[in-house]
Amino acid sequence: MAINLTPTEILVGAGGLLVLVWMWRSGARRARRAADAARSSVRVVSLAGRVLLTTAGMVGAQWLIVTHTSDLTLRLVTLALPDMIAAYVLIRALTVTELGTTRRRGDRR
């Protein structure tokens, strides 16, 4: 059984295979982008929950100490410590330590 194909039929078949590979790769890229977007939105919600929980704990501790003690030093430490932590975090977040460290996939280190 011999198969006789014309050059046009071979080109059409190769083109069809190329289109199939192109569609498969674009679908994989689209799925990867959708997964990355879903992960980033979950990170934001998770971060917001942790921030709110930590804030509630700090406010509760401050309220207990301020309302139930008359020691001035304890009150000052209670009110100043969260401010120091917040200042440290903000300074770390807003300070640029390195420039040009972005790498793309396949770059050498």
Automatic annotation (TrEMBL):
Keywords, comma-separated and alphabetical: Membrane, Transmembrane, Transmembrane helix
Domain of life: Bacteria
Transmembrane segments: 6-24, 44-66, 72-95
Protein's UniProt name: Uncharacterized protein
UniProt organism field: Amycolatopsis cynarae
